Amino acid sequence: MRICLRYSKNKDEAVEMVNDGFMKVFMNIHRYDKERSFKAWLSTIMINTSIDYYRSRIKKLEMEELNDKHEVEDSENILSHLHYNDLIKLVQKLSYAYRTVFNLFAIDGYSHEEISSMLSISVGTSKSNLFKARENLKKMIAEAPEPSKQKINY
């Protein structure tokens, strides 16, 4: 559920993704390699299910192409200013395109080349969507009430 919440717009959408994901787990349990971690296998299925959900809606969205000289800003880590739940609420407010690329890159650790292949978009679009997602998140963080700006305590 935690993975799907990151990719979804709201909890109802996340529940739909989780249901679809577990259906895939049950339909493909015979493919599970018992020598490997079940948690990693399940996480991969949930991420891919979330991406499939995104793809099914992509036709409704207009993807924005990157201007050739658009650079991704890495200087500020926006995650360090928020509690996990606060971040998820803000990420859920992003468009499908921005939310998906942000999750894949910033949280799940995929490269822009991998994201490009997974989502059938250009590398430039992936970089652009990440840049714009970060900009939107920064704006939302700046406008957030003070309790949301506390640092994460682990």
Automatic annotation (TrEMBL):
* Alphabetical list of Pfam families matching this protein: Sigma70_r2, Sigma70_r4_2
Recorded superkingdom? Bacteria
Q: Which UniProt keywords apply?
A: Sigma factor, Transcription, Transcription regulation
Q: Spell out the family assignment given in the record's similarity comment.
A: Belongs to the sigma-70 factor family. ECF subfamily.
Can you name this protein? RNA polymerase sigma factor
For the RNA polymerase sigma factor 70 region 4 type domain, which residue ranges apply? Answer: 86-137
Instruction: Describe the location of the RNA polymerase sigma-70 region domain by residue ranges.
Output: 2-57
